[in-house]
Amino acid sequence: TQQTRIQTVYQPGSFTPLLRIETENGEQAKARHRSLAEVLQEDTGVTLPAELAVMLGRLERELRQGSVSEESQQWLAQCGLTAEQMAAQLEAEYIPERKLHLYHCDHRGLPLALISPEGETAWQGEYDEWGNLLGEESAQHLQQSLRLPGQQYDEESGLYYNRNRYYDPLQGRYITQDPIGLRGEWNLYKYPLNPVRFIDSLGLKFHVNGDPSDFNQAVEYLKQDSQMKETIDFLSSSEETINIEYIEGTNVRFNSNNMAIYWNSRASLFCSTELNSKSQSPALGLGHEFAHAQYYLLDKENFMALLSRTDKKYENKEEARVITIIESRAAKTLGECTRGAHSGLPFYRVDGPLQTMKITGTPE
């Protein structure tokens, strides 16, 4: 705003807000200071070469951190200077006063309240199932514009800006068409039909049952492999909507009947049953199912044919195709282990979708 700068810290890999930071514009101005290079240039009236300005910038960072590198010390010594002399040239840093509030959100990431460091409720709102704000209270007159994940309230239009298009909470639908057209779905204006379970934080694709943080982290991780990125991009732009269902067990799978991937973001699959062997991350397990879904959409008949043909090592030919070609390549790109079988391998429970383990005892 004209008076205040509001920053939001989000849960990694998601659009769920965690922390609100308010800084008055006057405080922001006080926090500005000249760099060491600017001080020397302005005080001496000499324009420094770009290379020297870069070296001074690095030295300034080291001085403010209280740890000057050996390389910088040698450079200063050659110039007949000391770190103490240069530190005396630094302008003092001003830490602006800030107001902090913690977000209290529902299971989808919709803000329900703002909590002060003292534990007081500074703002609270009530919504219907489609994210329409029914009422709000704030003794401090706080304005809270975040809505469903990825959405921000636009006061002028009364709509919610959803990154790629506008959403009308009164109708429970978008008022602008899906930017990817019919590749998203035949209904160009639809928001998830069950907004209590599903969200659409980008206004695009993939319906995630629950908090999308683990899913988003896994997707970004998998995109480091070019073939996995192609698979994900294909699924994101396909006519079918892929539902991601979180499960507690180890029966991770792709179901072509309802176009759903059942995934445990905490189940790490081992490549071998021997001690000290490593596991694959849950994210790579998700990528494995992505590969099944892509091939099903590309060639349903051949997908079903491969699924029906048995394989001694990999259970069926479709599993053999994914494990030995797509999964194996992605594992090598991501620095993970490759497996030589499909069923019968143990799982370990890990703390996140990108974590791997080493066998040191009895698996789950």
Automatic annotation (TrEMBL):
Signal peptide: none annotated. Residues 101-136 form the RHS protein conserved region domain. Belongs to the RHS family. PANTHER family: PROTEIN RHSA-RELATED, PTHR32305. This is RHS protein conserved region domain-containing protein.
